[in-house]
Design brief:
CATH topology of the largest domain: Dihydrodipicolinate Reductase, domain 2
Number of domains: 3
CATH class of the largest domain: Alpha Beta
Radius of gyration: 25 Å
Largest sheet: 11 strands, mixed
Number of strands: 17
Structural class: alpha/beta
CATH superfamily of the largest domain: Dihydrodipicolinate Reductase, domain 2
CATH architecture of the largest domain: 2-Layer Sandwich
Helix content: 25-40%
Bound molecules: NADPH dihydro-nicotinamide-adenine-dinucleotide phosphate, L-homoserine
Strand content: 15-25%
Distance between the termini: 49 Å
Number of helices: 15
Length: about 425
């Protein structure tokens, strides 16, 4: 079985290593040897200290289009939209099965690849595209195919989870924590895709498409990164029994499906709250299975290569034994809802004048918008402090019951206009309660 590898960077070098170093076990598991026939890179002459000595340098080539024509299975770990898409399409039309870790490409134009693979009758696998080593694509696409998934909540970006965890545990500010993530190699030199939530949004689109049998693309995902999360937000979260996490959320409501990425308060008792450092986890709620959580390393060369190799073995077994992996499933074709339709709980923090009647005014605004209050917390000020500064500053933390995002937005605007309200310090969604 001829295997071509496109890319030899963080992930590709580890895929090559596993293919070579585990060749005997892989041959036994597949039923025939897997032969690595070439590794396409931009610069075949570049020094590659990350590539183990066990991998023959003569396999490196700059002729990716030629390489995909002489393989039974093509693994794409180059990243980016082009030439990755054209190379995968060329591989598919040449009859090869394809395995990719490219979430950006799948979220932007996955259906083009899925359709081409279906038409050619070849496998397309992409376990590594969502949450690295964690098996989540296969469980949602296959293991839960007999169930009805209601909601998927994922911590699917290790960099932002590390940053938020550092802020919570060390009191570091956002910039400091991002710098630490860069030093440890979690964050790229340009951390935009992570901190602004683009990476998580691509994964949310893929998960939503699989879970709800509906095409959801990157454009359908409402996205908000972690750049607005302050040390104060993190400290208040702790005080109110929560942890702030960047969540990728895909859910089905009676009106359709929604996919969104944003920072959220997660109750400290929820399993996702215990996902520390750069780890990832995906929490799935299904009608019959109940609650499931998948946890592990969401990035890194070897963990991601593990998921890639699992897909390679599946595709190779089909070539040896017959059969085919699942095709794209879009039969439900549910409406994809706009962000304003999302229904969730909120925690609104505001600074107000500490005078009689202020809380009542705020509560009235919420009532007028039909937003029900679940809890109000006002950190105490002593009588002596109150008398020393009558009408001084008070902080209110209001947690609501579920409300549509549109109603919450109108509520926030109306509260901001109240005379005793000095500032709305933050509005955070509460998920997983
Ligand atoms: P790297 O940037 O480390 O490696 C990319 C590789 O692709 C390099 O070897 C590069 O060649 C080669 N390449 C890039 N463009 C071309 C081109 N036009 N022609 C030929 N070769 C090319 O990326 P990663 O290994 O980090 O990521 C690869 C993919 O895996 C991406 O889609 C990413 O999203 C995904 N992924 C990555 C994870 C991670 O932890 N890194 C986790 C999960 C998924 P050269 O070496 O000569 O520059
Ligand atoms: N003490 C205020 C009130 C609460 O009674 O409304 C917020 O300042």
């Amino acid at each position: 079985m001829r295997v071509a590898l496109l890319g030899c960077g963080v992930v590709g070098s580890q895929v090559a290593r596993l293919l070579v170093e585990q060749s005997s076990d892989l041959a036994s598991r597949v039923g025939t040897p897997l032969e690595l026939v070439g590794i396409a890179v931009r610069d075949a002459a570049a020094p590659r200290p990350e590539l183990p000595a066990s991998v023959d340098r003569a396999l490196l080539t700059q002729d990716a289009p030629g390489l995909v024509q002489r393989a039974d299975i093509v693994i794409e770990v180059m990243g980016g939209i082009e030439p990755a898409r054209s190379l995968l399409l060329a591989a598919i039309s040449a009859g090869a099965a394809v395995v990719t870790a490219n979430k950006a490409l799948l979220a932007e134009d996955g259906p083009t690849l899925y359709k081409a693979a279906d038409a050619a009758g070849v496998d397309i696998y992409f376990e590594a595209a969502v949450a690295g080593a964690i098996p989540i694509v296969r469980p949602v696409r296959e293991s839960l195919a007999g169930d009805h998934v209601r909601r998927v909540l994922g911590i699917v970006n290790g960099t932002t989870n590390y940053v938020l965890d550092q802020m919570a545990t060390t009191g570091a500010g956002l910039e400091e924590a991002v710098a630490q993530a860069q030093e440890l190699g979690y964050a790229e030199a340009d951390p935009t895709a992570d901190v602004e939530g683009y990476d998580a949004a691509a994964k949310a689109a893929i998960l939503a498409s699989l879970a709800f049998h509906t095409r959801v693309t990157l454009e359908d995902v409402a996205r908000e990164g972690i750049t607005s999360v302050t040390s104060e937000d993190v400290a208040w979260a702790t005080q109110t029994g929560h942890v702030i996490k960047l969540l990728a959320i895909a859910e089905q409501t009676i009106d359709g499906v929604s996919a969104r990425v944003h920072p959220a308060l997660v109750p400290a008792t929820h399993p996702l709250a215990g996902v520390r450092g750069s780890f990832n986890a995906v929490f799935v709620e299904a009608d019959a299975a109940g609650e499931l959580m998948f946890y592990g390393r969401g990035a890194g060369g070897a963990p991601t290569a593990s998921a890639v190799l699992g897909d390679v073995v599946s595709a190779a077994r089909h070539r040896v034994l017959g059969g085919k992996g699942p095709e794209e499933s879009t039969y439900a074709a549910l409406p994809v809802l706009p962000p304003s339709a999302a229904i969730t709980r909120y925690q609104v923090r505001l600074a107000v004048d500490d005078r009689p009647g202020v809380l009542a005014q705020v509560a009235q605004v919420l009532a007028a918008q039909g937003v029900s209050i679940e809890a109000v917390r006002q950190p105490s000020v002593t009588d002596a402090e109150h008398e020393a500064e009558p009408g001084g500053l008070a902080h209110l933390v209001i947690t609501t019951h579920t409300a549509p995002e549109s109603a919450l937005a109108a509520t926030v605007t109306a509260i901001r206009a109240l005379e005793p309200v000095r500032e709305i310090t933050s509005v955070l969604r509460v998920e997983g309660a």
